[in-house]
Amino acid sequence: MSFQLPEIIDNPNGFGPVGLNAQFRDIPYAPYSKADRLGKIADWSAPEGAQGGAKDQRDNQRGGRSGFRNARDNYVPFGSNAANAFNYQHTEDEASFSVVDNRSGAKKTVANKSASAQRSTRGGFRQQGQQRNQFQRLGGNRAGFGVSRQQQAGGGPGGARGGRRGYGNWRDFDRNQRVRDASVKVGPEWNMLEEIEFSRLNKLQFEVEEPENISLHGSVGTYDRAYDRVNTKAERFLQQSDRERDIVTTSDDPILNDLASKPGREGEKRVFATDTIISVLMTASRSVYPWDIVINRVGDKVIFDTREGSQVDYVSVNENASDPPMDTGDKDNINSPSALSLEATFINTNFAAQVVKQDETVNLENGNPFYDAEDSSAPLVGYRYRQFDLSSTEEEDISLFVRTEFDGVVKAAGGEDSYITIKALNEFDSRAQGAGGAMDWRQKLDAQRGAVVATEMKNNSCKLARWIVQTMLVGADHLKLGYVSRSNPKDANRHAILGTQICRPKEFAQQMNLQFTNGWGIVKTVVDLALKLPEGKYVLVKDPNKPLIRLYSVPKSTFEQDNDEGDDEDAGADENTEA
């Protein structure tokens, strides 16, 4: 028989074929990727089932021999699941096939037993760490959340077998991606003007000088130092206050309206907002939940407003946790994001009213702008109106007028009274979904206060940053934090104060890596963007599922219909009451 070489098609201009042979034309295409990993033709040292079967998966979880293979050994090539003509089919019986291995079996057994013993005693930590890193890359929950410290360290039932995953992390990588609803429905007539990613916001910087104080309004109580001695063994029940605070937006503020009606300097452009709105803008890159801000451009003025019932006016819970609270659709679920937000807002209002002495009040220069002087239901809160200069050049003249709030004063022994803001962190259920790995405060708050604070800084980074910004905007010397927990994890109506903590806002901001120059850079960017727009109404919307904000141009009648319906309902209720 003569041997003949097949036809070779040479490519003189480069590497690769220049045409397709007729014998390959009817063969279907097999998808592939340049990143596909080439496998081994035969691996005699790999144990049985090392190609990713069920037995191999069980061994991997138990820290067995196959569990120590590189994670790339289980890599599935691109397109391998596609049906194609290249899949190998068994056509003959291979039962008679056997592998001949001349290596010594005795040494191999002893070596395997020795290595297995070492891995079971020392390798559990390493194996568990590999699994944590792997599932973090896959987008799952951080290892350790929902499991005990013993399981986190590799001890207990999981650690004894080489670092099995804790029950709180089981199949976190397979969890459905959460899709949140927007805070406001984008209408078909809305026109998107700008889209800004958080990565761009984080690069902004702007310096703002000390503001000018315009006026002080309201009355505040003196902080009761007896609450500094409250702890888990001497807790105090949270009482409901009769003095509820009304949420007043910028356009409904009589002081800001009076300032807006007065003529400004020649060429001056004025911006009006509340400290709540400014704090949302300054910490926008930390936010996860959706929000929206209404912008009205009128003449040389820009007014930042909030809608009635806007999420901006409520306090979030565990917004920045790796596994935040989830809305299950159950209206009776007290641990849903909306229910927890209402609960946290209720706690903050009542805590601020309880820890100040109602009989030792300090009347400020002017009365409360939202209540009559004889109204006994007026809340104890101080309003400080301040003017910030946002001009970046000598030719530019931009003034920002902000209504800021503080909650009380602290009596000094031989000095002046200092302003403080009072906020409360709340615990709902350390074992519930969405707790973010929080410790049980009644067991850990007194002995491990630093660990509790670190967890709250991680799970509530955006909320704490807003509180620090509000404290800095008003010029308060301290931020008073309270730790409030449910008396019963299943009851969202009864709470207890477990402790308090005083914080200096600048030092707290450094611990949280909060830069005020970056926050003012965001505010400056949004203000400049609004001043370039023509007169009209606009809405700044935080995307519910992506780290970006969008600016929409909306009709002037947007949101007015909802307010009119609310006014009609209130009027109807008053008529029924009179009848």
Automatic annotation (TrEMBL):
<feature type="compositionally biased region" description="Acidic residues">
    <location>
        <begin position="561"/>
        <end position="579"/>
    </location>
</feature>
<feature type="compositionally biased region" description="Low complexity">
    <location>
        <begin position="122"/>
        <end position="140"/>
    </location>
</feature>
<keyword id="KW-0694">RNA-binding</keyword>
<feature type="region of interest" description="Disordered">
    <location>
        <begin position="557"/>
        <end position="579"/>
    </location>
</feature>
<dbReference type="GO" id="GO:0003743">
    <property type="term" value="F:translation initiation factor activity"/>
</dbReference>
<dbReference type="GO" id="GO:0001732">
    <property type="term" value="P:formation of cytoplasmic translation initiation complex"/>
</dbReference>
<comment type="function">
    <text>mRNA cap-binding component of the eukaryotic translation initiation factor 3 (eIF-3) complex, which is involved in protein synthesis of a specialized repertoire of mRNAs and, together with other initiation factors, stimulates binding of mRNA and methionyl-tRNAi to the 40S ribosome. The eIF-3 complex specifically targets and initiates translation of a subset of mRNAs involved in cell proliferation. In the eIF-3 complex, eif3d specifically recognizes and binds the 7-methylguanosine cap of a subset of mRNAs.</text>
</comment>
<dbReference type="GO" id="GO:0002191">
    <property type="term" value="P:cap-dependent translational initiation"/>
</dbReference>
<dbReference type="GO" id="GO:0098808">
    <property type="term" value="F:mRNA cap binding"/>
</dbReference>
<dbReference type="GO" id="GO:0033290">
    <property type="term" value="C:eukaryotic 48S preinitiation complex"/>
</dbReference>
<keyword id="KW-0963">Cytoplasm</keyword>
<feature type="compositionally biased region" description="Polar residues">
    <location>
        <begin position="111"/>
        <end position="121"/>
    </location>
</feature>
<feature type="region of interest" description="RNA gate">
    <location>
        <begin position="311"/>
        <end position="325"/>
    </location>
</feature>
<feature type="region of interest" description="Disordered">
    <location>
        <begin position="108"/>
        <end position="171"/>
    </location>
</feature>
<feature type="region of interest" description="Disordered">
    <location>
        <begin position="43"/>
        <end position="73"/>
    </location>
</feature>
<dbReference type="GO" id="GO:0016282">
    <property type="term" value="C:eukaryotic 43S preinitiation complex"/>
</dbReference>
<comment type="similarity">
    <text>Belongs to the eIF-3 subunit D family.</text>
</comment>
<dbReference type="Pfam" id="PF05091">
    <property type="entry name" value="eIF-3_zeta"/>
</dbReference>
<protein>
    <recommendedName>
        <fullName>Eukaryotic translation initiation factor 3 subunit D</fullName>
    </recommendedName>
</protein>
<dbReference type="GO" id="GO:0005852">
    <property type="term" value="C:eukaryotic translation initiation factor 3 complex"/>
</dbReference>
<comment type="subunit">
    <text>Component of the eukaryotic translation initiation factor 3 (eIF-3) complex.</text>
</comment>
<dbReference type="InterPro" id="IPR007783">
    <property type="entry name" value="eIF3d"/>
</dbReference>
<keyword id="KW-0648">Protein biosynthesis</keyword>
<keyword id="KW-0396">Initiation factor</keyword>
